[in-house]
Amino acid sequence: MARTQEVAVQTLRRRSQALAATLTSRANSTHLVLYLASDIATLTRFYPAASDQSPTSSSQSHPRDISGSCLSSQISREMENNLPVNIHEYQELAKKALPKMHYDYINGGAEDEHTLRDNIAAYGRILLRPRVLVDVSNINMSTSLLGYKMPSPIIVAPTGSHKLANPEGEVATARAAASCNSIMVLSFSSSCRIEEVASSCSAIRFYQLYVFKNRDVSATLVRRAESHGFKAIVLTVDTPMLGRREADIRNKMVAPPNENLEGLMSFDDLDSTDGSKLEKYARDTLDPSLSWKDVEWLKSITSLPILLKGIVTAEDARKAVEVGAAGVIVSNHGARQLDYAPATISALEEIVKAVAGAVPVLVDGGVRRGTDVLKALALGARAVMVGRPVLFGLAARGEAGAKHVIEMLNRELELAMALCGCRSVAEVTRDRVLTEGDRLRALL
């Protein structure tokens, strides 16, 4: 067994042993049962030899064989009957499951994390205006983006290093998205190779790109994505340098190797004595001179449509249309870049008005409920991108957890539409929400 497999097996076994011991005294702990089941499934699926090895602790403290059929059957039954019922519960599971460094990396934001909190809180400041006595026996959540039909407006946002959450990494996430017929945007910092994700399942996928100082690296990644069937490029435009993520600095965060960059650049001398290795990597590789003219360069090397991700002002939205972007993504990078940037849902309507229908507008950041998706649609978003919640599901229950998160949000959206009297996405109009601005104007 390769060293990386051995480490993964040992880590999973240690966590499962600890949880199994806890289960003996807390038989009704649903979340612990769920995560133990996830560990067992991972061990037996990827490292069959591990299921034949007993835990190295005493039989008095732990079951003799945590992968035994009796315990596995019991856990499977518990898992089916006690799944998390919302994103918050998945987040709590993920926090229990992951090392602190990895959870902080996934969940953290920049500096004071004001924008991180406000991304979520801003949705809570928008009220819904339901219409009643509408026949909602049939709800149609379908929409389209760049000509591709979608059964719902929920897309998996680009987030990096999924192997921090689960050994299968982005392959598991891709399969989860595909099983829900959801578009997935693969991050440039994927811990799985572009080719590996592309071959894992049949689905519509976009590729997220950063522009490096060495443009040949970016061009190579674009060519690989295009040749393996990715349908659009999502250019991240808000990262000329990395935001100050203090949890990562404190933890001296080390991300998994980026296999997509192997052979394209060196990762030597990433000393983290003054902070996270991520910070050093970003300083050495990302191009701080990135400007609007580089969108033209990108258009010259690919025939794929290009969406610009990281727009939070009307001025930049209009400029994006002028340079020929195929879409605009309202994003503050999950609040990981500039703290005190506006919450994305607060910036959305300004940007929708600025582009005036010329290109589709998407939004990410802070989405935790189907009602959040409905609010974004009412304010003009064509689709909504979901990042951290999918990672929480992946960390808690692997592919099944990621899939369940997407399914939960879809079901919540369907219910919210029905209760608001909206039979289709087209009926989710501006008059279905009441924003802070609306309430202030009503006082004038």
How many angstroms separate the termini? 71 Å
Roughly what is the average pLDDT, rounded to an integer?
86
Largest sheet: 8 strands, parallel
Tally of strands: 12
What letter string, H or E per element, gives the SSE order?
HHHHHHEEEEHEHEHEHHHEHEHEHEHEH
Poorly predicted tracts of residues? 21-33, 43-68
- By secondary-structure content and strand pairing, the structural class works out as alpha/beta
Strand order of the largest sheet: 4-11-10-9-8-7-6-5
Counting H and I runs of at least 4 residues, what is the number of helices? 17
Roughly how much helix do the residues carry, as a percent range?
Answer: 40-55%
C-alpha Rg (nearest Å)? 22 Å
Overall geometry comes to globular
How much of the sequence lies in strands comes to 5-15%
